[in-house]
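Field log, afternoon session.

UNIT: design team B
ACTIVITY: writing a sequence onto a fixed backbone
BACKBONE:
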């Protein structure tokens, strides 16, 4: 293959060297300059040619592999993968570029839906005194923006909120999702609601207006979403999830909606590779279907950069088939319950019918405070600190797990999210393991969607909720109790 001709900008804080190399190779693959099956140069060769460390080159290659642009073959190297989509040069999002060094993390996420009850459908929840880490959010800054709203906007607070969401917040969200997730939208394409489950209920009404009666969901997947669509009378088509996310080949040949978490599937943590993303977009285009992309905690990656959204992969100027969902529970604090969806432009004509008779139930005060919080830059600086904090917590937990023999305990979901799947060889049941953790004040979730494998039983461990200064000792204590 021809040598790489990249010109690296040294000392660029926004684009570290590994990210510049990643973007260059990605563009070469998408343009067709590097065809399927082409072997990438060896790590050492690129490092010598570009005067880089082998670690920097490996970071770039690993990011390409995570997103599905290349595949690694043991004892052979990295090869360009098949991407069944059109050349997309100039349209592929560089989501996260401005804030990659910061990253994004929080303390809420999918776990927030389990915090208040002992049981929810097929899940068993341990009562936890470690609800969240006090170091995870700066409430002093939040108090300042709340006081600012009270001091300067009492006139707005004496009026009903906008059913679509406060314009100031929708404007800040439109800037944020473009910069961090590659989502292209205008403020009037955004609808704000009090939590993802309420937003999903909105979607149920919208699908009827679009003439869609079948909803495909991930199996295993996020149970409350299944319940909402089922309660609204939709036909559910549960599609199995593999290591590469939802099985594209099992999607129906007719018009439908599909609810997916392509960047960090719950509960498996699967990441959909780029080839499957293009295949899903083509499926939606050819069948007139709608993709509901739940991006609930895709930014919570501790190795490499956040992966671009599906919505950002759609070509400019063409009709969109992706409805994008986002939430602030993961990046602020769980109880704020501010979520949003970005509607495709061609669906905006249904906006009036969608919101008819609906009063905004999301706190107007908190919406305005969040708009100020984002405008002042607090949102970005705080989540930078939080990502570093949770990255250290993850590393600490893995050190403990790896200190045991692999046939005794192992961990899945070790690159993103707020929890780990721990697989343990023990005579205790998952429910007993959850109760033991509960007695220690630790949150552990059991699920039928994590079947026993190789003699090991699986549970979901919310390590992010433990204080950093005692996370290793608590994790070790919990594991010892499970094994003995």
């Amino acid at each position: 293959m021809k040598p790489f001709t990249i010109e690296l900008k040294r000392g660029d804080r926004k684009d570290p060297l590994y990210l510049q190399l990643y973007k260059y190779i990605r563009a070469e693959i998408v343009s067709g300059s590097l065809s399927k099956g082409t072997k990438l140069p060896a790590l050492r060769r690129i490092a010598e040619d570009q005067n880089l460390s082998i670690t920097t080159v490996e970071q770039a290659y690993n990011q390409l592999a995570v997103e599905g642009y290349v595949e690694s073959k043991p004892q052979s190297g990295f090869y360009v993968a098949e991407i069944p989509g059109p050349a997309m040069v100039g349209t592929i999002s560089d989501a996260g570029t401005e804030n990659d060094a910061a990253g994004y993390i929080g303390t809420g996420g999918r776990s927030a839906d389990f915090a208040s009850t002992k049981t929810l459908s097929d899940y068993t929840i341990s009562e936890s005194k470690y609800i969240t880490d006090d170091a995870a959010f700066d409430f002093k800054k939040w108090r300042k923006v709340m006081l600012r709203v009270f001091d300067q906007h009492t006139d707005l607070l004496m009026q009903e909120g906008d059913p679509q969401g406060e314009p100031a917040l929708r404007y800040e969200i439109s800037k944020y999702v473009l910069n961090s997730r590659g989502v292209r939208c205008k403020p009037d394409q955004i609808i704000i609601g009090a939590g993802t489950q309420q937003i999903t209920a909105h979607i149920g009404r919208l699908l009827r207006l679009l003439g869609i009666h079948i909803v495909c969901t991930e199996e295993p997947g996020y149970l409350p979403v299944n319940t909402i669509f089922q309660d609204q009378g939709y036909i559910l088509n549960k599609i199995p999830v593999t290591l590469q996310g939802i099985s594209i080949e099992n999607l129906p040949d007719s018009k439908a909606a599909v609810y997916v978490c392509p960047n960090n599937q719950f509960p498996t943590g699967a990441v959909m590779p780029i080839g499957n993303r293009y295949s899903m977009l083509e499926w939606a285009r050819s069948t007139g279907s709608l993709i509901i992309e739940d991006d609930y905690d895709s930014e919570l990656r501790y190795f490499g950069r956040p992966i671009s959204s599906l919505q950002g992969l759609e070509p400019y100027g063409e009709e969109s088939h992706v409805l994008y969902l986002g939430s602030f529970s993961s990046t602020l604090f769980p109880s704020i319950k501010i979520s949003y969806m970005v509607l495709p432009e061609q669906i905006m004509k249904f906006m009036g019918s969608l919101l008819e008779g609906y009063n905004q139930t999301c706190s107007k005060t908190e919406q305005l405070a969040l708009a100020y919080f984002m405008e002042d830059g607090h949102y970005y600086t705080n989540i930078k600190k939080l990502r570093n904090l949770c990255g250290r917590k993850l590393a600490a937990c893995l050190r403990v797990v790896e200190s045991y023999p692999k046939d005794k305990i192992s961990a899945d979901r070790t690159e993103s999210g707020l929890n780990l799947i721990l697989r343990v060889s023990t005579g205790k049941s998952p429910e007993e393991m959850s109760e033991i953790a509960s007695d220690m004040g630790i949150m552990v979730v059991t699920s039928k969607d994590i079947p026993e494998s190789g003699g090991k039983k699986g549970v979901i461990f919310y390590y992010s909720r433990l204080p950093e200064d005692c996370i290793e000792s608590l994790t070790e204590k919990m594991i010892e109790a499970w094994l003995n």
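LOG NOTE: The CA atoms of residues 173 and 187 lie 8 Å apart.
NEXT ACTIVITY: expression trials, pending approval
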